[in-house]
Amino acid sequence: MKPQPIIAILILLLLSGCAALYTPRQPMPIADVVELSKSKASPDEIIQRIRASGTTYQLRGSDFAKLKALGVPDPVLDFLQQSLVNDMDFLTRYWVVGESLGACSFCYPQPVDVDKLQSGFGVVPSTPPGYYQAGKPPGTPDWVPPPLSVASGGRIAISDVQKMIRDGVPEAQVVERINNSRLDGIVASAGVFAIRTQPTAGLTGSQLARLHDEGAGYAVLDALQARFLSQFIEQQRMRYINWGKGPGSMS
């Protein structure tokens, strides 16, 4: 028997193995999270599936209320929010030190359309992965605004938002107040110079869903999430800029 066919087969097997090894990781579709929730899988099982896939989602505030209505349990909502915060912390650090993840689409939080149960770059319209965004790390959701230069609305807490809703303040006024204020008491802070291994999401996914149950409209939830992430990114940016400089370096 001639050895050539055996060698050819071995080469084909080797090449197929290499192709499998370097196949890009596929993010978990948001529809799978909902389907698992409806299948009565436990929160731990759902979280493990999401964690194993390495997927993070660009969830607006209203998305948490919509996912809750579709049966996604509170622990999963909180995990989804914490995962997004973790990624934004990582992307902010890369942004400050001049590193980049390039156009690696599965490396960034995935854009989401919960109404259509769609997710992913190339599926949901969004800024392509790795593109420069003025005042924000690459990979930041399009709907997150740059940091406030002046907080004309002062400071606002979740309890203030709840009171405005109870008092019947028009939604547009509540949104405007949030958009022009600094959130108080929900962005975890141990000081600019403190070292944390993992930041904590001060505004949780289940909290956003509960606010909707209390009467907060989708526009209010979206404004809270956008302001929260914007403020978090700015806080982490200052933290990484001042790493190792000591408290006397702040101007």
List keywords for this structure.
3-stranded mixed beta sheet, mainly alpha, globular, two-stranded parallel sheet, 5% strand, 9 helices, single chain, disordered C terminus, 49% helix, 251 residues
> Could you report the average pLDDT, rounded to the nearest whole number?
86
- Helical segment tally? 9
- Please bin the fraction of helical residues: 40-55%
User: Major sheet: order of its strands?
Assistant: 1-2-3
Characterization of the model:
The protein is mainly alpha-helical and 251 residues long. The protein has helices at 4-21, 30-38, 43-53, 61-69, 74-97, 158-166, 171-179, 205-213, 218-241; strands spanning 57-58, 110-113, 118-119, 155-156, 182-183. The chain has one domain. The protein contains nine helices and five strands. The chain has a three-stranded mixed beta sheet. Strand 2 and strand 3 (118-119) form a beta hairpin.
Write the layout of secondary structure elements.
Elements: H1 4-21, H2 30-38, H3 43-53, E1 57-58, H4 61-69, H5 74-97, E2 110-113, E3 118-119, E4 155-156, H6 158-166, H7 171-179, E5 182-183, H8 205-213, H9 218-241
Parallel strand pairs: 1-2, 4-5
Antiparallel strand pairs: 2-3
Helix pairs in contact: 3-5, 4-8, 4-9, 5-9, 7-9
